[in-house]
Write a structure and sequence with these properties.
Elements: E1 2-3, H1 5-12, H2 18-21, E2 30-32, H3 34-48, H4 54-67, E3 70-72, H5 74-88, H6 92-104, E4 108-110, H7 113-121, E5 126-128
Parallel strand pairs: 1-4, 2-3, 4-5
Helix pairs in contact: 1-3, 1-4, 3-4, 5-6
Family: Belongs to the PINc/VapC protein family.
GO molecular function: hydrolase activity; magnesium ion binding; RNA nuclease activity; toxin activity
Protein name: Ribonuclease VapC
């Protein structure tokens, strides 16, 4: 299963999506290498809003490689991601996740409704994670 940053973050720290995302138990968890940077950026935003400490971020980043151990180099995905982005007017960094899902023939897990909608248009099986009610 291809995991995007929204799901990875919800596995690492408590978010409104954590309860539902933790119900996912895919045997294989993959993502583009960009996942590391995107996840770190989201964790930094949580820190800036005083929701988590720097120590918690450091621990989460160490855990990230365990949570999503299989990362694909972005440059290998870039041609396909560029094509998807150009045709859909979607952000190219999100399209890296879609390119990987198409290349691997695997479903995508995300909490991003817009990304999930585009994935479904591309016939990618999608697990849209919603917040806990």
């Amino acid at each position: 299963m291809i995991i995007d940053a929204s799901v990875a973050v919800s596995w690492l720290i408590e978010t409104p999506f954590s309860t539902n995302s933790r119900k996912l138990q895919p045997p294989a968890r993959r993502g583009p290498a960009l996942l590391l940077v995107e996840t770190a950026n989201v964790l930094l935003k949580y820190h800036r809003f005083a929701k988590i400490s720097l120590e918690e971020i450091e621990a989460a980043l160490r855990q990230l490689r365990v949570v999503v151990p299989d990362l694909t180099e972005d440059r290998a995905l870039l041609p396909m991601a560029f094509g998807i982005a150009a045709r859909s007017s979607h952000k190219i960094y999100d399209c890296l996740y879609l390119a990987l899902a198409l290349e691997r023939g695997e479903p995508l897990a995300t909490a991003d409704k817009r990304l999930a909608a585009l994935a479904q248009k591309l016939n990618i099986d999608t697990q849209l994670i919603g917040p806990e009610p």
